[in-house]
Hints:
alpha+beta, four-stranded mixed beta sheet, 2 helices, globular
Amino acid sequence: MKTSMSIFATIGLAITTAVAALESDTEVAARKAALDLAGAFSNEGFKMRDGHWSGTIKPKEHALIAVNLYAGNQYWFSVGATEPAKKISVNVYDETGKLVQTESYNEGEKAAAGFSPTSSGQYYVLLDLVEGNESSVCLVYSYK
């Protein structure tokens, strides 16, 4: 367990939760990009979860968002970013810090990860700016 928990300590993350606040124009643009991507999953029967997480992400920094998930459901985590981001990634970790195997989609400023948890509990969604400079990002997720 010490090794798996070190993923969070190594990258020095602060766990964040969704907070209602006034959004900037770039955050609104990032949310639109995330919602556009999530719309594709809605066509497959996924329902959009209320709320979202938005903020900024810098090179070599990450955002870690805690989410509670239920076994038996399928989830897609969709992320949108604004320029000057060139490529973002999204990964999911279980409560012990172990990387979860997901289906993935990546189209530069948009990315998504999907999976079905085998056990209910807290999971962590890690957003990473792979290429580009400081940008606004937004995470939304869908379930069925």
